[in-house]
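Table 4 source record.
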Amino acid sequence: MTAANRPSAVPSPATGAVRRARSVLLVDHDRPQRDLIAQQLRRAGYRVAVAADGDAALAACDVDEPDLILSDWTMPGMSGLELCRAFRRRERNGHGYFILLTSDADEADIARGLEAGADDFLTKPVAGQELLARLSAGERILRVEEELRASNDQLRKALDALRETQSAIDRDLREARKLQQGLVRERAGRFGPIQLSLLLRPAGHIGGDLVGFFPISRDRVGLYALDVSGHGVTAALLTAQLSVHLSGASDQNVALRAAQSGSDAVPPAALAHFFNNMMLEEMNTDTYFTMIYAELNHATGQVQMVQAGHPHPMLQKQDGRVIRIGDGGMPVGVFERPIFDEIEFRMEPGDRLLITSDGITEATTPGGRMLGDEGLEAIMRTNAFLGGHAFLESMAWSVSEYCRGERPDDMSAVLVEYLRPADPVSLPGR
């Protein structure tokens, strides 16, 4: 085996542009013909290595992977067809364009050659112009293959970088979820005969729902449920800001600021208008939210509520009847002069009030059927024997089952239960 040294790049005869010199392995047991073809290839600018048989050709491939292979079909020992099969079985970085030289190839031979992995065929004696034309065609294919491989490498690197970025985002969102869950500082509360229970379950890492409660005075408690439009970071940031305005600290809680000066707390409707002005004047965003805010007198059961586009609260009476509360009202942050629904009613011992986000009432089956208020009423009746978090967890499970786990929206709820005094127990002998 011998090889000729030459510059690594030569001008293309057709365009004058500089191209990378390709390496050619010429395999032919006929030395005069091998030398003639090798001379033509060198003059054309190729780097040429020669081998007299298949074994020598495979050994040459161990030293330097050729770009193109020209192999005689008929050789002593290993034939060109067998060499092609052996070459294709080897591990290599690129394709390697294989041309078989044959004296008289019929259709059956061509089929066998293609099956073995040959790319092209040349009939001997080889004409110089045809040889160079076939090699030029092979080079074009190799260039395409190399460009695709380079593009795949770049794509793979880009995907690796995206995966790393996504992993970092997922880590941040997991931490953000912990922080957002921390906005609901208490998941349950007891105020006289009133028991409050909260559910907050984002559809993704973070969400736009917020629920909570805070004491207003000795006999009154404020409770709220908010649902910010959209999902993800924007909605979560707004819920975080709103949570500050509704926190238990009186110096930050909008509803309690008036109480610092000895006045009464801000009424529910006034609070809704405050948030509406804040959204329109201070927030440079298209985001809005729906809201239920209520003041509950736990000594008398009197409820004063504002509904701003939020789903209807459900009041379940002691006898099992379910009553929808409110007419709807407009969402917060959309209209300059919104009309909110102001509601007053009284809860009696044994009643319970359920306030949910539309992630519950608008849950749909895979077929597109919505749960709706009727479905929520059915869940309340079915779970009438449960209370507190047991009821909320059972409701959440029912909703997930209804939509077969495909829940695109956050779920949140506030459950208000007016507990009845315990019935006296008669002891034996008394």
